[in-house]
Amino acid sequence: MDSFSEAWGVICEYCKSKITEVAYNMWINRIEPVSLDFDKGQTTLIVPSDFHKDTLERCYSVLLNEAFETVFGTTFEICFITPEEKENKTAEDSNIDTDSIYEYTFSNFIVGSSNTFAHAAAVAVAAKPATIYNPLMIYGSSGLGKTHLLYAIGNEIKKNNPEMKICYVKGDEFINELVNAIGNATTEQFRQKYRQSDVLLVDDVQFIAGKDRTQEEFFHTFNALYEDHKQIVLISDRPPKDMKVLDDRLRSRFESGLLADLQPPDIETRIAIIKKKANSLNVPISDELTEYIAHKIKANVRQLEGVVKKLNARYLLNNEKITQTVVSEVISEILNNDSSPEHTVNKVIEEVARTFGVSADDLRGNKSRQTSIKKPRQVAIYIIRELTGIHYTEIGKIFQDLHHSTIVYTMKKMEEKMQTDSKLKETVEDIIKNIRDNN
């Protein structure tokens, strides 16, 4: 397999076949693979919380080791870490880890009519950083290969210029790091971390829109790097003109370089993507079934690759012949995997918490009635109702048993406020777009 992330998909399928769907979704599906070291016999996995980690160690370590042994032929020492522990571990260094993302290269990026321009721009920037197209901004819907190009730029620059310091960060991580730096009085260290880089790669930069302090900090970081002739590459799900709450100063700077968009792949490109992924995994998919998949999934490269990975898992674990029936089942799983109300609720809570700079736990907790929580909770309630349509009583349970009449009142007030408060309306629309595009 090309990467640990692909092997992890097979491991998950193994676990899913051994436990109930509820248990799988609660404990295994929320694990994120980080690294795998064959020499040391160790693997690192991110889990949501200390409680989650304790439960996995007590109840699911045997299952996970069975899964690792099935896939790799050997067991590993499993290290569970929380997002906070990972952040502390990597706070001193945001350089790209080319060992863990080696699969993201220009050579394995399938070029078609929908992405030729963005690919050419990325190759040009990687060949001559900070000489042309600075900043470079690549934008498009989720699953079209934006992050692949971003990592490919970093990997290519690192290969040709090993002395260069390449700094990678996601928009939401930049926000969280700034908040922590302010709280810990380490703002200067935070600034130097980014402003001393030779190449700054920012994924999901749209997340910083609307966060005044973050935008201010990013504005000065951008200026410092640009004036020092350092390369800046930005990835977004939309062009700057569509970021309704983006600071005008940042919008003008984002638009000052080259904007390159990614469109959904055409049928020929989709077929090429499926074939390349199938060949890399040695999955025997016929031309007829390849074309069938390409016609069923039209707008998302990640979903195309996801189908091949799931077929590979079923082929490896069950020695299952890949028929049209099997392919149809896998496509259905892929298309419906992220559409459950529970999944959507969790995404809404996470996105609203990130947008307003509060914790997800405070957002859910009925006991937390601070002024800082009131507005984001109202927004969360409104969006959950809009996206899921679940009953007011069920929404109340999400927020520690708020009475359904409170939910009804909140919906009414939000609708009234959005008619007169354009910034609130734009914020809500922005959150909904982020959730839909990243599902």
Plain-language structure description:
The structure is a single chain. Residues 96-100 have low confidence and may be disordered. Strand 1 (32-37) and strand 2 form a beta hairpin. The radius of gyration is 22 Å and the shape is globular. The protein is 59% helix and 9% strand. The longest helix has 23 residues, at 50-72. It folds into four domains: 4-83, GMP Synthetase, Chain A, domain 3; 116-261, Rossmann fold; 267-336, Helicase, Ruva Protein, domain 3, CATH 1.10.8; 342-437, Chromosomal Replication Initiator Protein Dnaa, Chain: A (Orthogonal Bundle). With 439 residues, it is an alpha/beta fold. The protein has helices at 4-16, 21-28, 50-72, 83-90, 116-127, 146-160, 171-183, 187-195, 212-227, 248-254, 267-281, 287-296, 301-318, 324-336, 341-356, 360-364, 371-388, 392-398, 404-420, 422-437; strands at 32-37, 42-46, 77-81, 136-139, 166-170, 199-203, 231-236, 258-261. The chain has a five-stranded parallel β-sheet with strand order 5-6-7-4-8, with helices on both faces. 36% of the residues are buried. It contains 20 helices and eight strands. Helix 11 (267-281) packs across helix 12.
